[in-house]
Specification:
By secondary structure, this protein is α+β, with helices and mostly antiparallel strands. The chain is built from nine helices and ten strands. Strand 6 and strand 7 form a beta hairpin.
């Protein structure tokens, strides 16, 4: 009797459990997040092939179980798999969007028969199936079709997939809005650059010059981070593209330090301000040197730590100068608040 009851319970529960691992893709305008239903296997040696991965026992796979498949700075290759299902009575076209354009290598199996998608920012831009700043994986599912999609991700930076799924029609509408917003953003930066350079030419006030260089370098940093630089400026210069990201961050930090030093008039305040700023400038030049001559991961980590340290100290110096009665610090504090 108990054995029969167990069989009955398993027959009811197992289909539900297996269904829970399948990502259903109905006709919708909503964005679907595949990561919570993905499974991951880490390959520290970076040597496994697709045949090796397909022959892995189910126990080797671990559920991602969170909103995003992010694994930090490990240097490993990560294999991810997800089961997809089209519940509609018609063929459906979807786009898998990888929101991290700085991934070095991304391979996808199961998009189009035996054809393998191979891309990433350490492969020529022309290898992409869709010419786009982000990594876009087109996917067509027949009516009622179930399909397994397997991805391989490897990068020297942050192993962050940032994956989402949209129908082709929804993605096209979304892309138009994003291009408008990004155009306004870079247009505003260009206007600020021209305006402040003009004031510098008229007044010869170095603060406007440093701020102009800060805006220009920050714009370059964003252009690289969003994937536009690889698409439009250097689609085949892969070595330069990799070092350009931490380098642009460090150069932006350099001009931010010089602008902050000038606008808060730290030269005529306590000598300790100048001492701290000189240390920060030395660290910045060290990170720039790492970007050009050192290992990529060290440069990336150094630029990240430098940005955090400089932002925190800029806020602290601003508040201290405000308390000391330096009136421009108040406006500078408002600017920092808006930026952050």
């Amino acid at each position: 009797m108990l054995a029969a009851l167990r069989v009955l319970l398993l027959s009811v529960l197992l289909p539900g459990l297996s269904q829970a691992d399948i990502l259903s893709l109905p006709a919708t305008e909503q964005t679907m997040l595949p990561a919570p239903l993905m499974q991951v296997w880490e390959d520290p040696q970076q040597q496994a092939t697709i045949d090796d991965v397909r022959n892995l026992p189910n126990s080797a796979w671990q559920p991602v179980g969170r909103r995003d498949a992010s694994f930090g700075y490990t240097g490993s290759a990560y294999w991810l798999r997800v089961q997809l299902h089209n519940p509609e009575a018609k063929d459906m076209d979807w786009v898998l969007i990888i929101g991290n354009p700085l991934l070095d290598y991304l391979d996808a199996y199961g998009l189009d028969g035996e054809r393998v998608y191979r891309s990433g920012d350490q492969r020529p831009f022309a290898t992409r199936w869709i010419e786009h700043r982000q990594l876009l994986l087109p996917l067509r599912l027949a009516a009622g079709e179930n399909r397994e999609l397997i991805l391989r991700m490897q990068t020297e930076g942050s192993a962050n997939l940032s994956a989402s799924l949209m129908t082709s029609a929804t993605f096209n509408h979304h892309e138009q809005r994003m291009l408008l917003l990004q155009g306004l953003f870079f247009g505003a930066l260009a206007a600020m650059l021209i305006y402040n350079l003009s004031i510098f030419v008229i007044t010869r006030d170095r603060n406007y010059f440093w701020y102009s260089l800060f805006v220009a370098s920050f714009g370059c940093y964003q252009f690289i981070q969003l994937g536009f630089a690889l698409q439009w400026l250097w689609p085949n210069s892969l070595g330069w593209h990799q070092l350009s990201f931490p380098l642009s961050s460090a150069v932006t930090t350099l001009f931010g330090i010089l602008f902050t030093y000038g606008v808060l008039d730290l030269k005529h305040a306590s000598p300790r301000y100048t001492q701290v700023v000189n240390v920060l400038l030395g660290c910045t030049w060290l990170v720039i040197g790492l970007c050009v001559f050192g290992p990529y991961q060290a440069a990336l980590f150094g630029s990240f730590v430098l940005v955090i340290a400089c932002a925190a100290l800029a806020c602290l110096f601003t508040l201290l100068r405000w308390r000391e009665g330096y009136k421009p610090a108040r406006l500078f504090a408002i600017g920092w608040f808006v930026l952050m």
